[in-house]
Amino acid sequence: MSAPASPSPSDLGPSPHLPIAIAGVPVARIGEIAQFEGQRVQVRGWLYNRRSKGKLHFLQVRDGSGIIQAVMFKGDVSEEVFVQADHLSQETSLMVSGTVRKDERSAIGFELACDGLVVVKAADPEYPISPKDHGVAFLMDHRHLWLRSRRQAAIIRVRARIIKSIRDFFDNRGFVLMDTPIFTPNACEGTSTLFETEYHGQMAYLSQSGQLYNEANAMALGKVYAFGPTFRAEKSKTRRHLTEFWMVEPEAAYLDLDGVMELAEDLLCTIAAEVLRDCGAELDTIDSIRSEAEEQKQLLPRREALARVHGPFPRIDHADAVRQLQAMGSDITFADDLGADDETLLTQQYPTPIFVCRYPAEVKAFYMKRDPAEPQRSLSVDMLAPEGYGEIVGGGQREDDYDTLLAAIHKHGLPLESFDWYLDLRKYGSVPHGGFGLGVERTVAWVCGLPHVRETIPFARMMDRLRP
């Protein structure tokens, strides 16, 4: 006998733990307010700001999906409610009712003709983040409250849209989502940036990347991707670095270097197009609330910047990139990796992301395949975002030969017992394969035109920040 169907929320009626809803009046989300034009609705949220003018109160109400102005006229509510509205503190939780009407002056095109107000919980009048300038350290200390601001909420909504674009992109192309371990017994990108932890009598590390495990997954399922948090113990305080960040890592059998670049290009073009299509209002909000220092960077309006993102992206050989940089005054050599300053200088010459490929093998990880035509170079690639944002994608073709990979492990002084399973992939049905990692936070920073990655994730983890 099957269990009875669970009632839907609308069947349950108002929660006994909340102020009673108004009979026959729908609860409306501000982000969907247009569909309620001309109707009386109830909005449940928080007071973002307020001002008064004679017999009118203007209440800015937010509910997480947007902000709407509720206009309260003294004659439309009781004297008690009108007086109460004049003493509401910022971030008081409340429920307002009224009729939705068009207003061309409004950022969302509508306002609420308010005819009722219920205070759910009055907020402490000393709200820390008042409508004035605050330093970054203060705002990060109050990140749990800073997230309620218009700009921060817009950034996080863009982040969510980027993540949805990424998942849809790979799901629609036959890639299988695979979850890779957070605890690992070995390094992937280099032992100097590992967070160590004791693991039941053994030494373990927080994952720098799911790539090595994803190579095993690709040999099982052909096309896979991992998506989750990764950790780097880099002692870096630059605007591009977090100690905990999110990365998507596709890996595919029979994928060569050109295929890796095509896949990464398609992904970035998809992200740009879908954010431009679905997050125009958020991008406008971010553009409209910039500090003087940000404005001095003379970034393009974000809609314009994303409209430029279409393939094919320029593909530049590392040696050619070095020549360009040397001509612009850099002291980089052909044996060097590109530093942050070099990436900034190079990307300022192009309106779209660019690929720099075939780096010197010595500056890339042990698993990167060497170029058969020039063994001193690797079949590697970085995608660099324009406007000085630098590397957002790193990847390439993996070494698929057992003996070559074994020699690389020995050369790098890595413990063989930690990589015996990884070597097995080259013993049992090895094939050419490749993939890349895309850092979500750096991508969000570029898409939104942000000066630092700390605003791209709800609660950033950096060298000097572990709370809130």
Number of E-type strands: 18
Q: How far apart lie the N and C ends? A: 49 Å
Question: Tell me, what's the shape?
Answer: elongated
Q: What structural class do helix, strand and pairing data support?
A: alpha+beta
Overview of this protein structure:
The protein is of the alpha+beta class and 468 residues long. 30% of the residues lie in helices and 25% in strands. It is built from 15 helices and 18 strands. It has an eight-stranded mixed sheet. Helix 5 packs across helix 7 and helix 5 packs antiparallel against helix 8. The N terminus is likely disordered.
Offer a concise description of the structure.
By secondary structure, the protein is an alpha+beta fold. It has 15 helices and 18 strands. A hairpin with a 4-residue loop joins β2 (56-62) and β3 (67-73).
Secondary-structure topology with pairs:
Blueprint: H1 9-12, E1 40-53, E2 56-62, E3 67-73, H2 79-85, E4 93-102, E5 110-121, H3 136-141, H4 143-146, H5 150-171, E6 176-177, E7 183-184, E8 196-199, E9 202-206, H6 211-221, E10 223-231, E11 244-253, H7 257-278, H8 280-288, H9 292-296, H10 302-307, E12 315-317, H11 318-327, H12 340-347, E13 354-357, E14 370-371, E15 374-378, E16 380-385, E17 390-397, H13 402-411, H14 420-427, E18 433-439, H15 440-448
Parallel strand pairs: 3-5, 6-10, 12-13
Antiparallel strand pairs: 1-2, 1-4, 2-3, 4-5, 7-9, 8-9, 10-11, 11-18, 13-16, 14-15, 16-17, 17-18
